[in-house]
Amino acid sequence: MDLNQIDMVMKAYMPKLSESEQERLRFFRALWGVQAEVQKEHAAKVEHVVPDADTLKECSNAEQPVLRAYPAGIPADSLADAAQRLAGAMAAFEQFDLAARDTLAGVRWDRLVSASDMSLAGSDPTAYVGAFVGLLQDDGLGEDAARMGGAVVSLALRALLEPAAQAVQAARVAGDADQPYPVHCPVCGCEASVAHVGQAGTKTKGRGRALWCAQCGCVWDIERVRCARCGTQNQGHLHFFNVEGDDDHRIATCDECGGYVRTVYEEDGPMAQLYPFSYEVEDVVMAKLDLIAYRQLVAQEAQQD
Questions:
Q1: What pLDDT digit, counting tens, does each position of 10-61 carry?
Q2: What is the value of pTM for the model shown?
Q3: How wide is the angle at C-alpha 141 spanned by C-alphas 137 and 146, nearest 5°?
Q4: Superfamily, domain 194-304
């Protein structure tokens, strides 16, 4: 996680954001700082194998995330320590409900991580996070606090998995094993959080898109005219929406599956001047687009009825 890159993009964004948006971005910057510390101290302890090009190609052809076949070995004590630190940073954020913050601060992460399925953490982190929320609820946490706890574990896993995910993706690209382009993350299988159209970060340059996985940090290419959820390439069923006055941030929706992905365009607009690019910052800045997507999908369902 490149904090210098994140800070440069944040500096460019701050004057354009509302006070509440600035506060939210500062909150995540604190979490990213903890993630960077965790990554520096613990990521090297994660055991993982980067398969050869032929094996990676087999995974691609079978649409199998690499971690399913070659799980990462995540030490329980590393994950517990990461979760403890991130929970502390999250509990310090005064905008959260005080009761939920107090509950989060009192979680015994070492005990719960030890009781969890660590093999799942290294093979399917999204499923692990869902199972961990269940553990938190079984331990007496309410739904909101348990969801916050799930976010803590997700952030902890991201810090530990990112170097391994980047190594695997680099090997996929170097070995020409990254096609056919997958819809879900080729490393951990998570859905993409952000799509990026522009001159940086894609083999296809401005002709294609890159997708980013918030769970492991992997970035991979996908065709420009394709749903990033179901994979359809029926152009008539794919649409784009944006906030008025902001053509650089759009929502790509799909009529076939009802899904959407938040998309950053850097081709010709003001965003082209915001270098270096940061998926982490864009993920936070575009959070408001989720509400727009929800309203749009509700409107479409109403028209169909």
A1: 999 999 999 999 999 999 999 999 999 999 999 999 999 999 999 999 999 9
A2: 0.93
A3: 70
A4: FdhE-like domain (3.90.1670.10)
